[in-house]
Amino acid sequence: MTDIAQRELALEVTGLSKTFHSRSGGSRDALSDVSFSIECGSCLAVVGESGSGKTTAARIVAGLEQATRGQVRLREQPNTGKTRRGVQMVFQDPYSSLDPRQAIGPGLHELLRLHGLRRRSERQDRVAELLNSVGLDERHAKQYPRSLSGGQRQRVAIARALALDPALLILDEAVSALDVSVQAQVLNLLADIRQATNISYMFVSHDLGVVRQVSETCVVLRQGRVVEAGRTADVLDSPQAAYTQALVDAVPRPGWRPKRRSA
User: Fold this and answer.
1) H/E/C letters for each residue in the chain?
2) Rounded-to-integer distance, Cα 243 and Cα 26, Å
3) For the chain, what is the domain count?
4) Looking at the domain assignment, is residue 110 inside a domain?
5) Partners of 100 in the beta sheet?
6) Which residue has the higher pLDDT, 44 or 78?
7) pLDDT of amino acid 247
8) How confident is the model at residue 198, as a pLDDT?
9) For residues 113 and 185, what is the distance between their CA atoms, to the nearest angstrom?
10) pLDDT of residue 6
11) Whole-model pTM?
12) Which of 75-84, 85-94, 206-215 has the lowest mean pLDDT?
């Protein structure tokens, strides 16, 4: 057995399936027998086009959706079907997850208080620690979401997710709405946090350039099924599935120009 095989798993997903039923009596299989795992301290990317099932898989792992079949095993966390404290999720649009009527600092205080940190002095220290960990400070604590930039709001969303010391952080297209320079800053921040805390990431994205940068392993979904999985470099450099090859071929390269359509 290799050393890699002996590493502890932060997450193991086995035979995950999800069927959505409509009021008209129809049904749609969003996931079909999906399995993957994440080693402690590593990052797994879940890749696919819109409608591939990647967000559905992420929401099931986070406890926001109930699987039709299959198992989700998180290290030292029971699978209750409800939101797990050991898993937190950062969404594409941070503004929708923040209260526009509440300043950033008080929002973090309230979150910590609701989850058992009663002493105000302890909360103050923890809020300062969280803001510092994402490159923000006391000035930002007094601001409201509307006065922050998109990158700053995403940093706040990450700080909120980290507040409960999760074992796994799910990032669902968390940098896709940011411009390139801000995106790079947030990705560097995530790398620094992982190195400092040994947290594990499940990174949901359609951007193969970002996937290559942040993840060690990846799983490629198409229409709710796994078509390819393995080390990210192997999958992207030598794709075995035609669908994966098509995704790789669609990534713009230096000198690439779109084909002109005839009038």
Assistant:
1) CCHHHHCCEEEEEEEEEEEEECCCCCEEEEEEEEEEEEECCCEEEEECCCCCCHHHHHHHHHCCCCCCEEEEEECCECCCCCCCCCEEEECCCHHHHCCCCCCHHHHHHHHHHHCCCCCHHHHHHHHHHHHHHCCCCHHHHCCCHHHCCHHHHHHHHHHHHHCCCCCEEEEECCCCCCCHHHHHHHHHHHHHHHHHHCCEEEEEECCHHHHHHHCCEEEEEECCEEEEEEEHHHHHHCCCCHHHHHHHHCCCCCCCCCCCCCC
2) 27
3) 2
4) yes
5) none
6) 44
7) 93
8) 87
9) 30
10) 56
11) 0.85
12) 75-84
Does 13 map to a domain?
yes
Q: Rounded distance, CA 190 to CA 182, Å?
A: 12
Round to whole Å and give the CA distance between 125 and 132.
11
Torsion, Cα 240 190 52 248, to 10 degrees, reads -40
Residue 214 CB partners (closer than 8 Å, separation 6+): 43, 45, 187, 190, 191, 201, 203
Integer angstrom CA distances of residue 174 from 183, 206, 222: 9, 11, 20
Residue 224 lies in a domain: yes
What's the rounded mean pLDDT across residues 235-261?
A: 79
Structural domain containing residue 104: 99-164
pLDDT at 42: 96
d(CA 144, CA 153): 10
Say yes or no: 67 and 30 in one domain: yes
User: Are the C-beta atoms of residues 30 and 224 closer than 8 Å to each other?
Assistant: yes
Same domain for 194 and 154, yes or no, is no
